[in-house]
Design a protein that fits this description.
The protein is of the alpha/beta class and 290 residues long. The chain has nine helices and 13 strands. 45% of the residues are buried.
């Protein structure tokens, strides 16, 4: 939501991360506000983090810190797969993950499937540094339901990256085992699936079931950590489901010009703090903040 501080004649955007936690950023101007068939969309220019994309009141990215998320979503799997040629991105209509995927020389085809074409259009117009790979020769943009798309492309992809919004409304199914089985079917015989499973501090009640649902489908599930200043709590958890390979050790160097990911970051990100390991194993109770 946006509000005006009458004391200073300032406009602020506030995201409610949980019932007890909010994050506010001062807004210089509103770039666009619209409703798609699926969600509300805002692009704002903030004083601290540059341009910001907001869907249904939740921060999706800012220009200042988006690289932290998008590099960790893409490069961990792509650098630990022996030969990733075909990559599917589920969601990610802003194009940030796609931008990172096409950096890899081995990748021949990168398909972005997002059900909301208005998110794609908004990013093209207002976030050119994020959406810049949408016209890359390797890229295919498909504004449609990813579940439908995957059922028609079984066994096709080496890596599937699920760059979903928070697991509410239309995105809720993207964190459940039936969806993960569809992902399994669309992967090649040695494929990886990557997704984020939120924060252990604000979203443990989402994180733990999502991790458990992946373990119902994949023989090997690993978690790794990254930092995202404008996501709830700033501590973000990712998960990889693997059919065969161990994703914790990179097999190749990352592309040049990255700002967050390195091979050392890759290795270190798989080290889980004890409290998080206990949460994921069910040894520690999860208290919902909603």
């Amino acid at each position: 939501m946006t509000s005006r501080d009458k004391r200073y004649n300032e406009v602020w955007f506030t995201e409610e991360s949980s019932r007890h936690l909010r994050l506010s950023l001062r807004v210089n101007r509103e770039l666009v506000r619209k409703e798609s068939p699926y969600q509300s969309i805002m692009a704002l220019e903030t004083a601290e983090y540059g341009r910001m994309l907001v869907l249904d009141g939740a921060i999706q990215l800012t220009e200042k810190d988006e690289f932290c998320y998008h590099e960790m979503m893409a490069h961990v799997a792509l650098c630990s797969h022996p030969d990733p040629k075909k990559v599917l991105i589920v969601g990610g209509g802003d194009g940030g993950t796609l931008r990172e995927v096409v950096r890899h020389d081995s990748v021949e085809r990168a398909v972005l499937v997002d059900i909301d074409e208005e998110v794609i259009n908004t990013s093209r117009e207002f976030f050119p540094s994020v959406s810049c790979a949408m016209d890359h020769p390797k890229a295919e943009i498909r504004p449609m339901d990813a579940m439908v798309y995957m059922k028609d492309h079984k066994g096709e992809f080496d890596v599937i990256i699920v760059d979903a919004t928070d697991p509410v409304d239309m995105a809720a199914g993207l964190f459940q085992s039936p969806f993960y089985r569809d992902v399994w079917d669309a992967l090649s015989e040695d494929g990886f699936m990557v997704t984020h499973i939120e924060s252990p501090f604000t979203d443990a009640a989402i994180m733990v079931p999502a991790y458990g649902a992946m373990k119902e489908v994949f023989p090997s599930v690993h978690t790794y950590l990254g930092f995202m200043p404008t996501y709830p709590s700033g501590m973000w958890v990712y998960a990889i489901g693997s059919k065969k390979h161990d994703p914790s050790e990179p097999l190749r160097e990352a592309p040049e010009g990255l700002k967050y990911y390195t091979s050392d970051i890759h290795r270190g990100s798989f080290a889980m703090p004890p409290f998080l390991s206990r949460m994921l194993s069910g040894e520690e109770d999860v208290i919902s903040n909603y």
